[in-house]
Each structure stands twice: as C-alpha cells, then as structure tokens.
Design goal:
The chain is built from 12 helices and 11 strands. The strands form 2 sheets. Strands 2-3-10-5-8-11 form a 6-stranded antiparallel sheet. It has a 5-stranded antiparallel sheet with strand order 1-4-9-6-7, with no helix packed on it. It folds into 2 domains: about 180 residues, Jelly Rolls; about 100 residues, Arc Repressor Mutant, subunit A (Orthogonal Bundle). It has about 290 residues and is α+β, with helices and mostly antiparallel strands. It is about 45% helix and about 20% strand. The N terminus is likely disordered. A hairpin with a 2-residue loop joins β6 and β7.
C-alpha cells in the first residue's frame, strides 16, 4: 500500500518519482543501492496531517521550524525545530502540525539495496525514530537540489546526481546525530577537542590531558570519542599530524626532518615509519609523487 497523505489545502512542493524512472533506478549500478521515491516540503498552516498506512520505503521528516506532533510506535511526541524523524517500512504513523504553530517540514521516501543500512546508521542515535540534528542550512540546500530534479528533467545525469545528493544527506545526518548525542550532557564538544589538537600539533597530547580537558574520566572520554569518530583519541591526533605533514610536504621546501620536528617528532626515522603506516608510503615517496 502506498503512503497516504491527509492534507487540507497545502501550498507547497512535492515530487513523486515516476514509475518508469523507479524501474531504472532499481537496477542501475550507480543508483540501485539507495534512491528516492518521493520527496517534498510542507510549510506553515497549509497541512494538517501526514500519515503512512504501509509502504516499502523508509520515510524521513526534518523539521525546519515550528512544532508538530508525532504518533509512532504507541508514543505521541513533540517534534521541534532541528528534529529528525525516521519511519521504518510498514510502520503506521501520524505527523500533525501542532495547533497554533507554523510548522515547516522537509520529507523524503527512500529505498534500495542499501536503504536498511543507511537507516540503521541513523537509528543508532535516535530514540524510536526521533533524534536531534540541529538547524543545518546545507540540509535545506540538499533537499532543494533534490526537489529541483523535477524541473531539470529526468535525464540519467540529473538522476544519478540526485541519488548521490541523497546519499550525502543521509551520511551527514548520521554524523550530526552522533555529534549532538555526544555533546548532550557533556562539558565539551568534539569541535573543542579538535581545536585543542590542531593548536598543539607540535606537542604531545596524551589521554590524561585530553580527558582532563573534557572533564571526563579517561575511560568515559575514550569510549565517547571512539563512538563518535570510529577511532581512538590518540590515533585521531596522529592522523591529524600526518595530514599536516602531507600539507607541508606538498607546500613547503622543509626537509622531512624539519617537518617531523615541527610536529613533535624528534626522531626522523620514527616519524617516517609512522607516516608510512598512516599514509601508505614514506614521506620521501609521497613528496616525489
């Protein structure tokens, strides 16, 4: 059964991907993994209810401003500005504009061979399909690019580009969910730790220092940091140093020894071994290439 929309004189945009195009998206090697089936934007007082009785797609709703009421999985919750809603396939739900609120939402249905994997990544940091990603201007731009597909025409180039915009958007949202979850209740943000590391590339920062700066225990800090970045704090710092080393190799005439020393490595042989381990080639070979 298709998605059912109960609306009252909404004056906005929606794009339904035509059947002939869906059949192509389903089998094309560059789009079969993930592709949109419908998307749009409803705003202010023009819609009352969005419902899904049953569908074979995931549905994403992003609240641009105002408030709405989500009824999903036997819960009724308020959706506010910067909130993200993800509805799983075949799950009934109802989203209503909150009475007296001018509410604008972007929505998209997506499916494909990798749709469940993308959804799982999002749901990891959501509570029964509801999470907070904050206000993100680039999300609006990505949605507008997707919606513009209808006016540009259904050429292969346009459609493939739109599909990859969708993949980029979902990946970004998954990252933002992790960042907001990480920052919630913490005395620091990952951006602050990142800045601390960048300001001390010439120094050694150990786990004790980083944990003390974050006002967390070493165990809790390392656990939360890896949860967000998929790597340990120290390895993250090393990777950052090697990134800077690459920049200096590309843009300066400094010797490998001088670059190593500027990044806190007094032993040039150790620096070269570490660089090769991270980058995959020696500093000399990197500069030569």
């Amino acid at each position: 059964m298709n998605t059912v929309y109960t609306t009252r004189s909404f004056a906005d945009i929606r794009l339904i991907i035509p059947k002939f195009l869906l059949e192509k998206l389903k089998v094309h090697p560059l789009t079969a993994g993930l592709y949109p089936t419908a998307l749009g934007k409803y705003s202010q007082q023009y819609f009352t209810t969005i419902e899904q009785a049953r569908a074979d797609q995931h549905q994403l709703i992003y609240c641009q401003y105002g408030e709405g009421i989500l009824s999903y999985k036997h819960k009724k919750r308020t959706v506010k500005r910067g909130d993200l809603v993800l509805i799983s396939p075949n799950q009934p739900f109802q989203y209503q504009r909150k009475s007296g609120s001018k509410n604008a939402v972007y929505w998209i249905h997506f499916t494909g061979k990798l749709a469940d994997d993308f959804a799982e990544r999002l749901l990891m940091k959501m509570e029964d399909g509801l999470g907070f990603v904050n206000v993100q201007e680039n999300i609006y731009k990505d949605y507008d690019n997707l919606i513009a597909l209808g006016s540009r025409g259904y050429t292969a180039t346009n459609v493939i580009h739109a599909v990859h915009v969708l993949q980029q958007t979902l990946s970004f949202l998954a990252l933002q969910l992790r960042i907001e979850s990480f920052n919630k209740g913490s005395s620091f943000s990952i951006d602050a730790i990142d800045d601390l590391m960048r300001d001390n590339l010439s120094q050694e920062l150990n786990l004790d220092t980083l944990a003390h700066y974050s006002q967390l225990s070493k165990f809790h800090f390392a656990k939360k940091f890896k949860e967000l970045t998929d790597t340990s704090p120290i390895q993250y710092f090393i990777n950052m140093k090697m990134q800077q080393a690459c920049f200096q190799l590309d843009n300066t005439t400094e010797t490998i020894k001088q670059i190593g020393e500027s990044l806190g490595y007094g032993d040039p042989y150790y620096f070269s071994r570490l660089f090769k381990k991270v980058v995959g080639m020696s500093p000399k070979r990197y500069r030569g290439n």
